[in-house]
From TrEMBL:
Gene3D superfamilies: Mannitol-specific EII, Chain A. NCBIfam families: nitro_reg_IIA (TIGR01419). This is Nitrogen regulatory IIA protein. It comes from Alteromonas naphthalenivorans. Residues 5-147 form the PTS EIIA type-2 domain.
Amino acid sequence: MEIQAIVSLDRTECAVQCNSKKRILEIISDIAAKNNPDIDQASVLNSLLTRERMGSTGIGNGIALPHGRLPGLEHVIAIIVTSNPAIDFDALDDQPVDIFFALLVPEEKTEGHLQTLATVAGKLSDKETVKAIRRASTSDDIITALS
């Protein structure tokens, strides 16, 4: 799976002002619903919060991979947000998070979901990619960094 297949400019936001884990998840949910008429903001938020209750998706190095399953979704959707400043997200390394790469996946696609998470995590383990995302001042810059 290519990351370019799941990202888009209309689901990418740069330097969002935010100060809490719940608020960043609300922003991600708003972006998902705003650009996808078949997606309900409250359902997205509920799915992301439910997953976070199982354990933080903050993987360390200032990165979080919030994700959730949605009934009726036909394909994987990514929402990418950077925050300024970084926020407490209960990450594994206890460091604040400023890069959020959220994934929404069809409810029944468990195996594909895990492969997509692995692909994204692999891409975000590249230090140059992460540096480029952090330097980004526009959504275009973020998409370019992921290319």
